[in-house]
Amino acid sequence: MTPIPNLNIVPFVSVDNMMKLVMRIGIERFLTELEAYIEEDFRRWEMFDKTPRVASHSPNGVIELMPTSDGTLYGFKYVNGHPYNAHTGRQTVTAFGVLADTASGYPMLITEMTILTALRTAATSAMAAKYLAPKGARTMAIIGNGAQSEFQALAFKAVLGIDKLRLYDIDPKATHKCAHNLAAYGFDIVQAKTPEEAVTGAQIVTTVTADKKNATILTDNMVGEGIHINAVGGDCPGKTELHRDIVLRSEIFVEYPPQTWIEGEIQQLPQTHPIHELWKVIAGNETGRSNDRQITLFDSVGFAIEDFSALRYLRDRLQGSGLYEELDLLADPDEPRDLFGMLLRSVKPNTDAA
Questions:
Q1: What distance lies between CA 56 and its chain's CA centroid?
Q2: Residue 230, burial from CB neighbour count under 10 angstroms (0-12, 13-18, 19+)
Q3: What 3-state DSSP class applies to 56?
Q4: What's this model's pTM, rounded to 2 decimal places?
Q5: Based on the domain organization, do 185 and 238 belong to the same domain?
Q6: Distance of CA 31 to CAs 14, 22, 85, 140, Å?
Q7: 168 plus 248 within the same structural domain
Q8: Residues 241, 158 within the same domain
Q9: Apex 32 CA angle, 287 and 174, nearest 5
């Protein structure tokens, strides 16, 4: 007989255990399986509660909460974005998340999500490219070679078969780091000296920079017909990576329009400009790439349903792994109404005094 789980004990996945789980499964397999979970949830997009992330901005960055529910499970992620943290040896993005049972309100899982966010962002990019990138694409340029770049490369390899990379970063050390980390994964890698050199010959261009300002990572003359742009770096008001003319020339696909109009590349455009919701393409309600000459743009800002999918995938993969700790997180009085009595009983009587 399977023992009834103690619902007051909540599994917690630490950074150490997350790394062990990813490496046990294998990075490319993890990304492929995670992509399938995200795609499954995009197909049932209409079932979810949806709201733009709740953001608290400061001069140094932003702290955000990203909640959603499918009616059975509830998930949220706490995430920050502080681009200047790198100057003090800290991560630009850190995160943790919670998955809960909507019937009881009890949390079912607490986990680190710094690593998991990098994986889900890459898996979502690759999922979008399945529907938007040119058929048979083998070469991708990655402009911005920081913490997200290797995950993007491996997701596109695992899901689309990309095996040629053209890397560029304003800091050559970041490009060397990325090339070194990916050296054993079967890529043909070019370390470009300029962004123009990086995009030459690429069918897919991924922009994934960290600076929280309006920037021009790609200029209009750098983008020819028939490519797919995976714009990952834009994720808050006032931060863009693409010249406005590129956005105007592209067929634009987004996650959740109320959030993307505020945070994405399309914040440069009037809200009357036509865009497409990616979930409708995945669900078969709209067409993705329609011809070989088209420029497609996935204006990715990250949305809570993707984190929900990642939490759901993680919960399923934890079964029998042993790669979690048990947190005594929830009070469990013998009588649910007697929480105060539980507190009193926590102190043993002093029997030594006599």
A1: 19
A2: buried
A3: strand
A4: 0.93
A5: yes
A6: 19, 9, 27, 17
A7: yes
A8: yes
A9: 100
Catalytic residue among 235, 292, 307, 316: 235
Same domain, 110 and 130: no
- Does 198 lie in the same domain as 289? yes
Cα–Cα dist 146/143, whole Å: 9
* Residues facing 231 on adjacent strands: 207, 299
Q: Do 247 and 234 have their domain in common?
A: yes
Structural domain for 62, as ranges: 9-115+306-329
What tens-digit pLDDT sequence spans the chain (354 residues)?
Answer: 334 456 789 999 999 999 999 999 999 999 999 999 999 999 999 999 999 999 898 988 889 999 999 999 999 999 998 888 988 999 888 999 999 999 999 999 999 999 999 999 999 999 999 999 999 999 999 999 999 999 999 999 999 999 999 999 999 999 999 999 999 999 999 999 999 999 999 999 999 986 656 677 888 889 999 999 999 986 677 788 899 999 999 999 999 999 999 999 999 999 999 999 999 999 999 999 999 999 999 999 999 999 999 999 999 999 999 999 999 999 988 899 999 999 999 987 665 554
Tokens describing residue 310: 């990642």
State whether 157 and 264 are in the same domain. yes
Count of CB atoms situated within 10 Å of the CB of 135: 7
- At residue 88, what is the residue type? T
Question: 107-112 and 95-101 as β-strands: parallel, antiparallel, unpaired?
Answer: antiparallel
Number of structural domains in the chain: 2
Give yes or no: 235 in active site. yes
The β-bridge partners of 143 are 168, 207
